[in-house]
Amino acid sequence: MTKTNLTAHLKAVLLLIAFSIAGTTISTAQTIARQDNEIKKMVDEISAQNLKALVEKMVSFETRHTLSTTTDKKRGIGAAREWVKSEFEKYAQASNGRMTVEMDKFVVKADGRRVPNDTEMANVIATLKGSDPNDDRVIIVGAHLDSRATDVMDAKSKAPGANDDASGVALVMEMARVMASRNFPATLKFVAFQGEEQGLYGSSHLAKRAKEEGWNLIAMQNNDILGNSFSSEMGIHDNSRVRIFSEATPSVEDERAARMRRTLGSENDGDSRQLARYMKMVGEKYVDQIEVVLGYRADRFLRGGDHTPFNQQGFAAVRMSEMNEDFDHQHQNVRKENGVQYGDLVEYMDFNYLRKNAGLNLASMASLAMAPYAPEKVGVVTSGLTNKTELKWETPAKGKKPAGYVVLMRETSAPTWERSFAVDGTTVTLPYSKDNYYFAVQSVDADGNASLPVLPTPVR
Question: Which pLDDT band holds residue 15 (cuts at 50, 70, 90)?
Fold first, then answer.
């Protein structure tokens, strides 16, 4: 495809209306509606029946408590880990050798809290190696395999953990099944964590490993409690909304970054917050009848999840969770009281809702993995007083060359991006004041797959 045709194709993909500003051809629109056909096919292959079967199998282990047996072949966390590993290995057969599976074992020392004795734990990881040897980007989608009853130290009672968090693990596994036969330039990791309920041990182990081994981890999507569409107490039935939580500013920002954040007023624009916005934009494009509600806090009130250790290591990581939780069927012993059934059981789940949430995760992961690297040295020119905004950036040094770029814009009071501009080159001057708007730049391929947005910093 010639450069001219590629530019024309990009504009058609973005469904934008072209006009010219300051000698640079740009296009503008409120949303990017065109879908990548291959991503749409993958989303459509996700099966509610498969998700249900996976959850039912995990429930059949009776308990998956982190401190439960590892020697029983049919019960406990050990049997559950081995089963997840064997399923990943089945999916890997469709990958032509690109998907490998590991049981990443580690020992947690007694902590005097929720781990009374030194305990061997393990994360089950399926890695789909990227097809581009020059692309070192890594994307993780994960969920925790362990379950619990009312007492977090009760390793013997029945703890089915259907929704918390067999729903998340089933989502991860179904994504691995669908994506194993496809090629992505970036490397994808599908993870079932252990030890979440006892203190985020599995995710802490992998986040530290990613940091120590120098992974170019650009996104971590954590999925925890995603298969219920009913709100206890309130009686609300809602399978059309899902929450994504993200930290506003990086947990590990240095003083220089903090000063720049305060100067620019970008407290709402950390890497994780950008990832959450990205998942909303992409997910809603590919999945019908779902709205992503952005929770502008790191997690639910006074609670946490497996994305937290990744944030603490400086990575962009978010948590997806159902819109309304059912606390009669979460962290409860299986029992019946006054005619009310308690316990995290399969019959209280909504698998069509879980299917939509899996599709949202897949679309985001696939689009990001197919997209070019993000633009580099993104800047806003501040050499003169003007009511226009001049942006400039450099083509990413790695990976495939972008077909073009998208500039995002929103008012300073707006929670999400409101407008977008398709740009051919690496500079643009817009008739909007940087005093009144925030901007960001994405690299885009010919099918409309975009990188994570990069906020500009001042340049002269």
Answer: very low
Does the pTM of the predicted model rise above 0.85? Answer: yes
Same domain, 429 and 450: yes
Please tell me whether residues 305 and 433 are part of one structural domain. Answer: no
Task: Give the dihedral of Cα atoms 240, 241, 242, 244; nearest 10 deg.
Answer: 150
Q: What are the tokens at 413?
A: 């009071």
257 lies in the same domain as 307? yes
- Model confidence pLDDT, tens digit, residues 404-423: 999 999 999 999 999 999 99
Q: Is 224 inside a domain boundary?
A: yes
Based on the fold, state whether residues 323 and 401 are members of the same structural domain.
no
Are 335 and 409 members of one domain? Answer: no
Q: In this structure, are 234 and 336 located in the same domain?
A: yes
pLDDT at residue 439 greater than cutoff 80: yes
Q: Cα separation of 220 and 318, whole Å? A: 6
CB environment 133-150: b (16+ within 10 A), e (fewer)? eebbbbbbbbbbbbbbbe
Of 370, 386, 404, which residue is a domain's last?
370
d(CA 147, CA 330): 10
- Structure-block tokens of residue 28: 């503008």
Last residue of a domain, one of 370, 400, 420: 370
Average pLDDT taken over every residue of the chain: 92
Note the helical H segments in 265-307.
271-286
- The CB density around residue 164, as the number of other CB atoms within 10 Å, is 28
Based on the fold, state whether residues 348 and 250 are members of the same structural domain: yes
Looking at the domain assignment, is residue 72 inside a domain?
yes
pLDDT of residue 332: 94
Q: Does residue 41 lie within any of the structural domains? A: no
Where b means 16+ CB within 10 Å and e means fewer, 418-432 reads: ebbbbbbebbbbbeb
Asked if residue 165 lies in contact with residue 173, where contact means CB atoms within 8 angstroms, the answer is: no
3-class DSSP state for residue 332? coil
Residues facing 134 on adjacent strands: none
Phi-psi region of 92 (alpha: psi -120 to 50; beta: other; left: phi over 0): alpha
Q: What is the pLDDT of residues 95-135, one digit of tens each?
A: 999 999 999 999 999 999 999 999 999 999 999 999 999 99
Say if 262 falls within a structural domain.
yes
Contact 335, 159 (CB under 8 A): no
Specify the CATH number for the domain of residue 335: 3.40.630.10
Domain enclosing residue 442, as ranges: 3-30+374-459
What digits encode the pLDDT tens for the residues 284-327? 999 999 999 999 999 999 888 999 999 999 999 999 999 999 99
Residues 362, 277 share a domain: yes
pLDDT tens readout for residues 197-219: 999 999 999 999 999 999 999 99
Cα 19 from Cα 16, distance rounded (Å): 10
d(CA 46, CA 44): 6
